[in-house]
Fold:
Amino acid sequence: MQALEKYTPSERDTWTWYLANLEDVQDIVKLASGNFQHEVDAYMRVDLPLFARNLAQTCIKQAYNLYDEQLLVARNKTTNALIGWAWAGRGSYTSYSLDEMAEAKFIHMDMTLPTRTRVTLLAQAVQFWYNWALSCG
Structure:
């Protein structure tokens, strides 16, 4: 993780990360469907109400248990616009071990952002996931 240290969130960032709450769900659905739905429509049916329900359930779960799933959002500090979000969970296993592992469920960001900003958001999300997995044990 040392290679990602230069991307650690700082006051210089024009956005802030926080644990998602129910008020964030519709913005997440809007951003995600606007950017990726057309990519998957050809091979699966996207059910946006189901997606919103799963996001809402995760928001509620993490409000009571930070070690089950983590749903983070990044919002612009000035406009409060959602610019990215990241979702990780636990309870997954590989076919070759009985050790539990964390699962990266989703990471998504506003694809109109500059490439450098998107790379920074991605690296920060990976750092959050890594530290969350360590704290889960």
About this structure: The mean pLDDT is 92. The first strand starts at residue 15 and ends at 19.
